[in-house]
Amino acid sequence: MANKSGWKNQQSKHQRRNHHLREIILAILVVLSVAATVCPYSAQAATPKVLVSGYKVSAATIYSGDNFNLTLEILNTSKNKVKNMKVTVASEGGEIIPVTGTGSAYVAEIAGNETSEQTFSMQAAAGLAEKTYKLSVKMGYENTSGEAFEMEDTLYLPVYLKQRISVTDVMTDDAKVGDEVEITAQVNNLGEGMLYNVNARVEGKHVEKQETYIGNIDTGKSGNVDLLAKAVMVTDFEEMAKPEDWIIVTYEDRNGNKHEEKVDVSFYIETVDYEDLEVLKEAPEKTGPVTWQILLICACVLAVGVFVGVTINKKRSR
């Protein structure tokens, strides 16, 4: 009977111990749940994420062979700060390179949800093709516990070739008011990139505005300008030193941005000589007497011929 009572007591102790254990476990779960609600540590908080939220380029257009400043806006998206950050910019093929140094910058820390700006002096290598190039931004940093992390972003930078033209061999005809003047010239592509949709026009004080389409001109090539414009005003030689007429060449780059080159052109336009016109009008009237004189001479020659012929026949008859 005593053994049976002892076994029941022991079983009761085990049940009480298990009950206490369940209560402890339940209490721990409640505490963890409350802690998660009060301090919601997400994966982002545990692994702080840093990214390039924006960037600025000092040059309006990046040309092959030119230097420019690149400013990165680096955002810490987590609530906790990050520290000991190293930022490195580089392109895979070396198309965009740092002007000096290794293209790296050190950032002591960035507070949670804050941005840090870092500026790099870069160069687009000479001899590049006209297209968009990738630039990688690598960021290595630590969280508040000293754990190391790495992130990488990619920028896309368009690089252009410099365009440069000259207008040479400008020639014009002398003319009188009302006549058509021929204007010829040559457009030379001295730059590194193609000239697109090249147009040339002449305009100014002495001739009517005229325009011609030349087309595309490749690097090192030339296009011809050939225009006919009506002369409308006599040249004032006292004002010839002042530009009053121009050949204007317009062209586009690869993105359709328009550019313009303007050169002076001189015309020698004379007034119409009305005395010459009067002479021309009178000339047909003066041909009358001349014509009768010719007819009279012809009649005399014919009469002499007839007389000689008759005389010869008479002599033969005798």
From TrEMBL:
It comes from the Bacteria. Keywords: Membrane, Transmembrane, Transmembrane helix. The chain crosses the membrane at residues 290-312. This is CARDB domain-containing protein. It comes from Wujia chipingensis.
